[in-house]
Design a protein that fits this description.
7 strands; 2 domains; Rossmann fold; alpha/beta; 7-stranded parallel sheet; binds nicotinamide-adenine-dinucleotide; 9 helices
């Protein structure tokens, strides 16, 4: 029998794309599903689609960048389904392409508030609920392969997704004795509407910067890569497989391994150079510096 039957999952950004594919996959495993999203119409359509699949679903309009919206979502989810067993911090935006010199503050704030603070608020509000019933539960953060490497002209997106990976690593250790399994999902390109994410840019983050030719080129290439990405339903199915196996890093694109291999190799070489450094050897011998740690 599936370990998910009768349990409840809350999925931010669950009205569309990857969030909806996770909602469908988990709903078909027998979970009650709460989809929480900023976009009204797709939210109503997703609610209808999930209901048509026989899933018990609650749809809530909310903005992940507002903590009070998370509190309202938690209250409504508990009133409808009782105990909460899974939070998936999935809502995210990728707009705000720009260089170190040109990306404007409004775009930085938008990405930080949605992609990073949205995850922080979600976990802050829901972790006490995941812990309170003592049953196995899950905290899942959706990062990206972009969080595993630097992407030129995508500094803001890269930074927020790298932060989500780092937070997941920190929280997995914090929560390891609390029956809360923490995982981080890091896809590469998936065929969704992420390239149209400006549709969800709240008015308070409006940007008036004209993008340069370089930026337009990168944005166009990214749009093409998303359109050529894997089918979104593969992510939902792969996610169930990974959760059942208790995976922490959940990857959907094994062909991207060379990206993390190159980074690991560069870090290993840098440590080797530090190990071989005559300067560091010298001060270590003189006991000038306490290297501490390992
Ligand atoms: N599609 C890809 O290629 C890809 C690759 C790696 C990671 N991701 C990540 O996957 C996650 C889902 O993206 P997607 O590709 O399904 O995109 P999508 O645009 O299809 O779906 C994102 C959902 O989040 C919602 N959303 C956006 N801002 C919100 C806010 N402030 N509050 C609440 N909901 C909000 C949107 O309305 C939408 O339903 C994101 O975190 C994204 O960064 C996507």
């Amino acid at each position: 029998m599936s370990q998910f039957i009768g349990k409840t999952a809350v999925i931010s950004g669950g009205a569309d794309g990857i969030g909806k594919s996770l909602a469908k996959a988990l709903g078909q495993e027998g979970m009650n599903i709460v989809i929480a999203d900023i976009e009204k119409q797709p939210l109503a359509e997703a609610e209808q689609e999930l209901t048509g699949l026989g899933v018990s679903v609650l749809a809530i309009e909310m903005d992940v960048a507002r903590k009070s919206d998370w509190e309202r979502t938690a209250k409504a989810a508990r009133e409808r389904f009782g105990d909460i067993h899974m939070l998936i911090n999935n809502a995210g935006v990728s707009g705000g392409v720009g260089s170190v010199e040109t990306l404007d503050e409004a775009s930085w704030r938008w990405l930080i508030d949605v992609n990073l603070m949205g995850v922080v608020y979600g976990a802050n509000v829901f972790v006490p609920l995941l812990r309170e019933h003592g049953e196995p539960s899950w905290l899942i953060n959706v990062a990206s392969m972009a969080g595993m490497c630097g992407v030129p002209l995508g500094g803001a997106y890269t930074a927020t997704k790298a932060a989500v990976v780092a937070l997941s690593e920190a929280w997995a250790q914090e929560l390891k004795d609390q029956a809360v399994q923490v995982s981080v999902l890091a896809p590469a390109f998936v065929r969704t509407r992420i390239h149209q994410c400006n549709r969800n840019r709240q008015r308070r983050y409006a940007s008036h910067i004209e993008p340069s030719a370089d930026v337009v080129k990168v944005a166009d290439a990214t749009t093409q890569a998303v359109k050529n990405g894997i089918d979104v339903n593969i992510v939902g199915q792969r996610f169930i497989e990974a959760l059942e196996a208790g995976e922490f890093y959940i990857f959907t694109h094994p062909n991207y391994q060379p990206v993390t291999d190159r980074r690991s190799a560069a870090i290993a070489e840098a440590f080797q150079r530090a190990s071989d450094s005559p300067f560091l050897k010298d001060i270590k011998q003189q006991n000038v510096l306490n290297f501490g740690g390992q």
